Amino acid sequence: MSVRTRYAPSPTGFLHVGGLRTALYNYLFARKEGGQFILRIEDTDQTRKVDGAVDNLLDAFAWIEIPFDEGPHIGGDTGPYIQSERLDLYRAHIKILAESGHAYPCFCSSERLEKMRDSQVAQSIPPMYDRQCRAVTTAESSARIDRGEPHVWRMAIPDSREVTVKDLIRGEVRFDAATIDDQVLLKSDGYPTYHLANVVDDHHMQISHVIRGEEWLPSTPKHILLYEFLGWEAPVFAHLPLLLNPDRSKMSKRSGDVAVEEYRKKGFLPQALINFVALLGWHPQGEREIFSLEDLVHEFSLDRVNKAGAVFDLAKLQWMNSEYIKAESDDNLIEHVRPLVSDLIQTHGSSRVELAILTLRAGAETYLTLSEKIHDLFAPSPIRNPELMAGLCDDKVVLVVGEVGRRLAGVEERDWEDFEKIGNTYKEFASEAGRAYSLKGKSLWMPLRIAMTGREHGPELAKLVGIWGRDRVLGELEKTLKYLKHQVLR
Ligand code: GLU
């Protein structure tokens, strides 16, 4: 059997992380098995349709670099790939189901259905259609349809029998047909419901494996019956565990940041997001956690997907993203971060800002936090803090700072443009001055850092002199010396 999987979203908004996981597992499985991966748009609920949703979705997949083999944007042999363009096919299957007695028209008004539902709820019994229209004879229903009476088509669920879902992840799950509602298959507007369209399409698109979220498991017995009624072989099913918030509540489209687009805006790398999402429910062999998409194709298997819900741990995603930022080539990193610091590039020039990008990359969780750190570095230094400055009120320190400042002021302007050279020169001056006044190690570098930045933490000073350049470095040292003199004279 050739493997064909599909991702079948409804175009109701943005791609969210749960959808990304479903798509990813379908993609990985298909690739691993040498099969195909198909995109199908399930837009049969016209009331929930959102303009632009398909474009958003395709954009997200283009960014994340997961390609489809067939889909509305690229075509294929089993299209069209948008359900609203396949309505005739669904109606034809209603006819087949009606002829074999597996579907029947229902003329019940929405008022009647609502009343029935309310009374069932009041009696605490699960709301289900009472099958009144199943008793209408074919002759009568044809006449009523011919008269133009509004109706839907329902599935005639057998009264009593067991329906078994064989699921690759969950094993055998049994359902009692008595608990299954006579599902509407075709609505009064002539559109199919999800259930009919999904089954008809999976069959006609020759889908071999249906890999989808656990929330669809209760629908699966209906689907299995439809396959049976139509005389088709059902695909293999695999229902993925729920995604959970850290408090183990169900993660829904509405909870927090779940849109892939948000992660993109915040400066996560698509590779990191894929890596993270792959591990939401699937566990590889061994302790390894960092996987490229290619590695994942190689390692992935459905039998290592857990049944238990998978907790979405943002801190882990941030850690993973920082690992990807660390590993990115300098050129790529610069290309990705430049748009976020274009204001700084305008004022300070490319080369200083690029040096800042490379210097501050370590530990940055996202491109956005990296850009914030860079902005912070170019922002004016804080007003000198008396507590920190107190540590510099030492004769030797004042002399060293003065000496380093004087010697740096003597360096030719063009030598400041060679960042590595000025960095080394700075280190040399500082060590020499330190030696002259017997200061070394932390007792040399910490005062120098505070003198130059007004802070205790920051990037390596030899880098900072390159990033800031002559005017700022000399200006900062002078600012500190002035402050110290003022303190001493007071
Ligand atoms: N259209 C459904 C969704 O929005 C597809 C479910 C399935 O994969 O069968 O997720």
Structure description:
By secondary structure, the protein is mainly alpha-helical. Among the domains are: 1-73 and 241-327, HUPs (Rossmann fold, 3-Layer(aba) Sandwich), CATH 3.40.50.620; 330-378; 386-489, Arc Repressor Mutant, subunit A (Orthogonal Bundle), CATH 1.10.10. Helix content is 48%, strand content 9%. It has helices at 17-32, 53-64, 87-99, 110-122, 138-146, 194-204, 220-229, 260-265, 270-278, 293-299, 314-327, 330-337, 342-348, 350-360, 367-378, 386-390, 395-409, 419-436, 442-453, 461-468, 470-489; strands spanning 4-7, 36-39, 103-106, 152-155, 162-167, 171-176, 184-186, 209-213, 236-240, 243-244, 310-311. The radius of gyration is 33 Å and the shape is elongated. The N and C termini lie far apart (89 Å). Bound molecules: glutamic acid. Glutamic acid binds next to helix 6.
